[in-house]
Amino acid sequence: QDESASELREELNRVNSENKLLTEKLATVYQNYYALHHHLE
Amino acid sequence: MDYDPNTNPFDLHFSGKLPKKEVSDSSSADVKPKWLVKDDEVSLLQEELNRVNSENKKLTETLARVCEKYYALQDLLKELQSPEHVKFQNQKLTKKRKQDLDDFVSSPVGLSCGPTIEKITSEKATVSTAYFHTEKSDTSLTVKDGYQWRKYGQKITRDNPSPRAYFRCSFSPSCLVKKKVQRSAEDPSFVVATYEGTHNHPGQHASVSRTVKLDLVQGVLEPVEEKKERGTIQEVLVQQMASSLTKDPKFTAALAAAISGRFIEQSRT
Q1: Nearest to A18, CA basis, from B46, B53, B6, B26
Q2: Contacts of B258 (CB under 8 A, 6+ apart)
Q3: CB B151 within 8 A of CB B167
Q4: ipTM attached to this prediction
Q5: Which pLDDT tens digit goes with each residue over B205-215?
Q6: Which is more confidently placed, A20 or B115?
Q7: What number of other Cβ atoms are within 10 A of residue B64's Cβ?
Q8: Is there a contact between B141 and B159 (Cβ–Cβ < 8 Å)?
Q9: Is residue B193 within 8 Å of residue B180, measured between CB atoms?
Q10: Of B14, B49, B76, the CB nearest to A21
Q11: Is there a contact between A2 and B52 if contact means CB atoms under 8 Å apart?
Q12: Do B228 and B216 touch, CB atoms closer than 8 A?
């Protein structure tokens, strides 16, 4: 059980980090999208 | 514009690049109750992992959608900036101007100088734009549109270095038509006149229309030649009116009745 909990924590860490990167990328793309949209207007 | 075209939001294979750091397992290290059995801890971790995975999925989907729109906009921008598109737009504009010019000249009220007219009709007022060809070296604005105007303002706009002059119809306040005149920013060989409203009186024919001249420094200018021209115009107008009225049988009858009525009144007194 100790081993199972450890693996889960590791996986949770990994997915959390991935989520953080996804959120940052999404923010960047949103910003670029609206800048481009504004430019085209 | 502040955007980074090198952004590659589809690069989602970054999980292998992530640093392998341990969970700051505060729930298990600091707050973890001693009575919590290992099964419960595994269950909670699994639940949290499911939640984070679901969030991860939603984020990935949203990112894909936004990226798709972003790339579509980028393609549109490239298309608009392509030399072929710019050339096409210029040709289209030239054709439109020529067509409008032909339409206006062939119309019964067309002026000999042939301005290009674009009309936008709204519920409140009719707005029309006319382009008048002018020499680039000519610093004054000359607009022959068949009506007389009174200037009431002038200002410089940010988008165009040439001054913009504002006019009211000389029949104001009975006629509320206004216009603004400015040299075209795109093509300085044209003067753009924008009209608001429709005249409630007839204008003068092109052959007898008065030339409205603006001196950009001194404001409204009336040179001697123009005064002479106006005098000639008035004479022509009077002759035309007299000619048309004498040909009108109703008018002659009404005139005869009025004169005879006046004679009768005088004979009574």
Answers
A1: B53
A2: none
A3: yes
A4: 0.91
A5: 444 444 444 43
A6: A20
A7: 13
A8: no
A9: yes
A10: B14
A11: no
A12: no
Other beta carbons less than 10 A from residue B192's beta carbon: 23
User: Which residues of B have a CB under 8 Å from any CB of A?
Assistant: 1-4, 7, 9, 12, 14-15, 18-23, 25, 28, 38-39, 41-42, 45-46, 48-49, 52-53, 55-56, 59-60, 62-63, 66-67, 69-70, 73-74, 76-77, 80
Whether residue B42 and residue A8 make contact (CB cut-off 8 A), yes or no, is: yes
Identify the segments of chain B with pLDDT beneath 70: 1-37, 98-125, 139-140, 142, 204-248, 251-252, 255, 258-260, 262-269
Q: CB distance A9–B45 less than 8 Å?
A: yes
